[in-house]
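hey so i finally got around to running the thing on that chain from the lab meeting. sorry it took forever, my laptop kept dying and i had to restart like 3 times. anyway pasting the input first so we r on the same page abt which one it is
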Amino acid sequence: LVTDRNEIEKLIQLNLRASRKGKKSSAYIPALHMIQIARKLAEIIGVESGLMVEILMEEAELEYLNGHLAKSEEIGLAALKLTDDIVIKANICNLLITQFSARGMYDKALISINDALIPLGLSLPSEDLNRIITEEMKTVQEKTENKQIKSLVNLP
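ok and heres what got predicted. didnt touch it at all, straight out
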């Protein structure tokens, strides 16, 4: 039984690394098991929030890869609450967007897209979306009409 905090932190890091290696090898079930151990140990000793977010992001992705979509969403949302870093938030939102889209939950996907864009000072329109898309498609068609494909690279 390991009780020394430094040793537990090493175990957390080892499980995190092993989980990532397992995921890269498509060994999703053992990778999920390893990250769950890392998370439990991290919760016991109370690691800093950056490490906990890293663990949660890995766990959310592995839950998704193992087909546990609702659990993945829950963990992803928990990770979002622990960080103020906009890049990390965008990465978490990206995972949520992928999940929601795969599940046909496009309304939630749009919310997650806006959640990722707002810190960057951007957002998607929420009203008259069909009209806006139609107008944009018309503009694209007008700008690309009678143009050769290789000339499109220079268009704005």
